[in-house]
Amino acid sequence: xxxxxxxxxHGMTANPGGMESSIMNYYRNVNSDKICxxxxxxxxxxxxxxxxxxxxxxIHLIPGRRKYxxxxxxxxSVFEENxxxxxxxxxxxxxxxxxxxxxxRSFGVPLRIIHAHSSGLMRPSLNNIIFHEIDKYRMxxxxxxFWSCSEKASKFFYSKNTINxxxxxxxxxxxxxxxxxxxxxxxxxxxxxxxxxxxxVIGHIGHFxxxxxxxxxxxxxxxxxxxxxxxxxxxxxxGPLRLEIENMAKTLNVSEAIYFLGVRSDIPALLNAIDxxxxxxxxxxxxxxxxEAQTLSIPCFASTxxxxxxxxxxxxxxxxxxxxxxxxxxxxxAKKDYMRTDMAEDIKKAGYDIKTEAAKLEQYLFxxxxxx
Length: 372
Known about the structure:
alpha/beta, 18% strand, 15 helices, Rossmann fold
């Protein structure tokens, strides 16, 4: 295929989380002369809007499904007015996705990709559970490719037949390894700015929502703090449960040792300052933050509900959520004196270097469209 191709990307939200970071990493690293990405955003301004527009991509912002007629008409107009070679829909669940694929199919979009980024429902209502299962089978008729960030996400989104078919593909949550090299000077600077000198710094990155299990994390930190009064907890992110977690920290008298940093753009610098990373999530697809933390040679602890593929080095340990916060704390404290090393080659060999993975994705898109 000699000409450039146009792909419509769906799934960007206002929250600069792991799914959004994954999309942007591939967007930044494919050859923009060969592949043009535009973005379809439903009912909310996308994170990274300024960067997306500065790169010359279109953003189609349309109302949500509650305004169904307007929603439908706007979707139709996007495909009427633009000739797209592919649709790449990034999802944490299937409900509400089929209509988009039906419309794309009706307009002859040859490549229609569904990309799974989660292994559980963020809102596990009975309706969502039912429609997620129904839409697994409805998507078979309307999608051409079935991607996911991990095998665990695949099992949540797709049937066994789909997973075992040539249309299924794992797309790694790859990162720019050069951005996540351990830097002792940067570490010292950040720790000085945040007044973390001589502190044991526990870190976490995540949206303040039920799935990230912040309440359990606070209880684990409480147990750590009882044994190590120089310990602090950095919470990076924001969300609807933040105030509840802040109040919980006050109740346990650990609020002075917890730093609520909000949404940040300096993640590599903050990770340099962290000693141990903890992610007690109820479920995950494949957490972006664990890839970044391991690249920076940080000992990590995650719940056994997190996909096992996240353990791309021996720095990641899994602990069952059935264990007490005290047992979590004991295992975490056993790693407090870990000496950092350079993990770049290990991460690259595991398939998480964005330069390499973006080139693979680029070639795959061209080869697939050539075949279609």
